Amino acid sequence: MLSMWHILIVALLVVLLFGRGKISDLMGDVAKGIKSFRTGMAEDDTPPQLKQDNDPTHKS
Fold first, then answer.
1. Residue 20 and residue 24: Cα distance in Å, rounded?
2. Which of 8, 23, 28, 40 is the most buried (most CB within 10 A)?
3. CA of 49: how far to CAs of 52, 54, 60, in Å?
C-alpha cells in the first residue's frame, strides 16, 4: 500500500526531474485542452435539424 511518505517522495522526485515551470506549463496545456474539448462538445449538442437549416450548401 502507498503511504503518505511514498506519495511525498514521488511528488518530490517529479518536481526535481521536471521542475516547477514545466509542470505548470503542462497543467496549463491540459486545461486548454479540456476547455477546447468542452467547447467542441457544446457545439455538437445542437440539434441536427438546426444544422441543416443554417447550412448554405444544403439544397431542399
1. 6
2. 23
3. 5, 9, 13
